[in-house]
Amino acid sequence: GRVGGGLLPAEVARAVVEALPGAVETLRRNGLVWGGPDALRLVRTARDVLAPSAAMASATGLGPSLAEATAGMSPTRLQEVLADAGLPGTHDSVSALNALAALFGDPERLGSLIAGAPEGVRGVLERLVWGPPYGEVRDAAAAVRAAHAGSPVQWLLARGLLLPAGPHNVVLPREAALTLRGGRAHRTPRPAPPDVRAVARSERTVDLTAAGQALTAVRTVTEVLTAWQSGGPTVLRAGGISVRDLKRTAATLDLPEPETAFWLELAYAAGLIATDGELDEAYAPTPAADDWRQLPAARQWTVLAAAWLTASRTPGLVGSRDPKNRALSALGPDLDRSLAPQVRRRVLDLLAGLPPGSAAEHASLLERLRWERPLREGTDALRTDLLGWTLNDAETLGVTGRGALAAHARPLLDGAAEQAAAVLAPLLPKPLDHVLLQADLTAVAPGPLIAPLAETLGVLADIESKGGATVYRFTPESVRRALDAGRTAAELQAFLTDHSRTPVPQPLSYLIDDVARRHGTLRVGAAAAYLRCDDDSLLSELLADRRAAGLGLRRLAPTVLAAQTEPAALLERLRAMGLA
Fold first, then answer.
1. Got the DSSP string for 206-238?
2. Based on C-alpha coordinates, what's the Rg of the chain?
3. pTM of the shown model
4. CA count, 13 A, side-chain hemisphere, 13
5. What pLDDT score was predicted for residue 75?
6. Which residues of the chain have pLDDT under 50?
7. What are phi and psi of 44, to 5 degrees?
């Protein structure tokens, strides 16, 4: 009898016949097959791409054809296989392959051949018939005759039912596998797509949960921009940021490193951070970030969500190893995967097709994706990871709530960002223009703050805790940071007075004045050369001389000038002016 064979049930066979013309038309439309109805041919490029190997099986689990598997076999050896399979000899290899293909393609003749096989042969075929079609053995390339076959594998090798695929690999040829399968490419044909199983949720709960995450997304990206405003991490020689800088940023955001990598990649994809183009390249907020910070929170979110939807970046790969065993870094050049936006978009489309407020069972989503686009083994592993990352990222970003697509995310799938923002806006708390200053050098923001207030407070104080309310702490370092940014003590005092519902506590006022008193006492600057002269009037004349305009001179003391010119060039210019 057939190994793994059996006819299809009548209802399945009818469904396959009904679906086949549409499938063929899809292949024709995409330029993958050509030829008449009775002579379809796969284009060469597709054939090469789909060719199975020991390292990567085909999507059907079928191995190479007889012609492909025997490409390196000598004519003499081919005739030996023919004889051991019970077939008469031929005058050429082409005829020999045709004879073997006819034998392996005939269910009755192949069944008779296997019926006389010793114990264990059928077990080997059962293991290989549905794929992977490759097996690992010793001395696979050794020529074995039927009379000397001492094992089930050798019995099969002698008759061509297994063929060498390397020094230690054998393969079941496609013609034999198809017959043993009963002519089926898959164990269980699925002419219709499998359903995505829905898990019911409350629509209101879904939308509110997602809206809360959307607000967190906006806040977190804003924190990234604030943290990197005065200079982000330097760019590694190979691109991206170092593990140490990722850890430092994660500590600043008070988040795990994988989640921090997601927010950095999201800000990068949205064009809010980029390299600054300086000699010692570093990451910094872009001009687009300034515009983004002035948008309402709902519009800020749509910018982030739209960027995520189409981005090829895969932050889930951060920390993993490339084929050369190098760690993949956040913002590095090796995180792009063209499959990522395809999987992301298809998953959201499938969620959108469920009843509103419904989540999808993970296993059924993966099954549906595999049915729609069967991929080879290695790529399918990436797609499985991408599905998990997509569902997790969508929840983190506020595209979904409790696994179900949020109402404000649906318009984004049609590119309607303004409509998405209009749906989200009523679900977000109204931004506040005030905080509550406490005597312990903290400020409590009972909700989201308007952009100017949040931006200034983010420089003047450090975020101590986040949640429904945000707690900011004032420290000497944070006050000094605001002074470094160009604010004066009087401006900071006025800012706090204007934006606090409680009086400015004395300890905070004293802290600002004390730090301001010492701020700028010592100043650091750069100079390429200096010029000293006991005659301060001569130095004054030099400063006023137009010929010295390109030297970058400035007075450090009555008898000392600093220059932005190398000493040799400075001396040459002074001599040309008759001063040295």
1. HHHHHHHHHHHHHHHHHHHHHHTTT--PBPPTT
2. 36
3. 0.74
4. 7
5. 94
6. 1-6
7. -60, -45
